[in-house]
Amino acid sequence: MVVESGKRRGRGRPKEPIPRSTFLRAAQGIFADAGFQGASMSAIAREAGVSKATLFHHFETKEDLYIEVLTAIASDLGRLVHEAVEDRGNFHERLDRLAEAIIRYLGGTPRAARLLLREFVDAGPFMNSAAALSVATVLDDVVALYQDGQDAGLVVPQDLRHLAATSVALHLHWFAATPVTRHLLGGSPFTPEAIEDRIREVKAQARRLCTL
Amino acid sequence: MVVESGKRRGRGRPKEPIPRSTFLRAAQGIFADAGFQGASMSAIAREAGVSKATLFHHFETKEDLYIEVLTAIASDLGRLVHEAVEDRGNFHERLDRLAEAIIRYLGGTPRAARLLLREFVDAGPFMNSAAALSVATVLDDVVALYQDGQDAGLVVPQDLRHLAATSVALHLHWFAATPVTRHLLGGSPFTPEAIEDRIREVKAQARRLCTL
DNA sequence: GTCTATACGCGGATAGAC
DNA sequence: GTCTATCCGCGTATAGAC
């Protein structure tokens, strides 16, 4: 999946600098497939269709590039969760909205779940950077949603932290643990039909999980 | 956590060969912390208290060592699941037994969940080896349990594959995604009290998840 | 069966031309 | 801003002494 730039770029300052998104897209792919340690800057440069030195010109270190890739995803999800969870409609509507928004995003961005879940397991450069705070915010948003439900007497009187953890696991694992999902499903979870099925199933599971 | 052998081992064939478990334990630790790619044979040898060459004498390649470590865990869990799920007692008893057995194992073997979940996300050497079949068996055991429940009219008429996936995610994520769990819990999930709490919460969640 | 020593490639990162 | 060429360390893996 090499970028087709038609003709090779020559030396010297070009009229059209390579957009940052080119590097980020390539990096997203390689990091998702190989992880932070397994990915090499050479592979990312190759994928982006530039030389390694060019890549190093745009990102001082591999860590910088990795953190930027993960920050973009965490920020997307953070926005999505915050909007879905906001105080419009009753508790169950908010719960449904949350599931649907997350699944459409993770289903439409196949690398996102793998990148995030791997980083959670690795406790790697991103989770050890300041940007990890956005993850904490998302978690707190989810807990707050359940808290609202509990206050309204709609949610079972159980530990909300375990409930929030299950919610995160539920969403990420399906799209990230591809061998497991493929074995169970017998196909890709990223087809449009599979995604619609998933939304239906998760909405039902999420309701039963917390409802009295 | 270096092995204390008292005095250094000399050259030549020793009277007491180093037990294989020494290498496996060390490898488990390093692989769990760094992942397959991130781990180095030097680090594992250091942790085991032997030279790199000695380690390579016992395991031809890093992959061999890694697969053996993961096979041991998958086999432990496979046995546990198979026993817990077997046809003793009613459906809810079997469900509770399953949760308790898995949580005690993962809680008492802090590296297991990380190793397994990371491998699921990586689709690495283990999942591409023949040994991965044991994972498929476990998944099928779980689906079969839910099928029994559905046949008995105790389980909600929903897609059992999504239910099984949630069950796996639920168990692994809590003990594997340590930064997330620690943020939510505000401490380690591996203390005896945290484990008992976890058993209680998961039993309740697992019931609500599938029960009519 | 374990050691020391080493081969060899590939990783991240840099220098300097254009 | 991008290129080619290169440095240097650490990775896996091997050879041969003991």
In short:
Helices cover 72% and strands 0% of the residues of chain A. The first copy, chain A, has 212 residues and is mostly helical. Chains A and B meet through helix 1, helix 6, helix 7, helix 8 and helix 9 of A and helix 1, helix 6, helix 7, helix 8 and helix 9 of B.
Topology:
The structure is a homodimer.
Chain A: H1 20-38, H2 41-48, H3 52-58, H4 62-85, H5 91-108, H6 110-122, H7 133-151, H8 160-176, H9 178-185, H10 192-210
Helix pairs in contact in A: 1-2, 1-4, 1-6, 2-3, 4-5, 4-7, 5-6, 5-10, 6-8, 7-8, 8-10
Chain A binds a DNA duplex (18 and 18 nucleotides) through α3.
| Cα-atom radius of gyration of chain A | 20 Å
Poorly predicted ranges of chain A: 1-8
The SSE order of chain A reads HHHHHHHHHH
Structural class of chain A: mainly alpha
Mean pLDDT of chain A: 93
Overall domain count of chain A: 2
Contiguous helical run count of chain A: 10
Instruction: Estimate the global geometry of chain A from the Cα principal axes.
Output: elongated
Beta strand % of chain A = under 5%
Considering DSSP H and I runs of 4 or more, what fraction of the residues of chain A is helical? over 70%
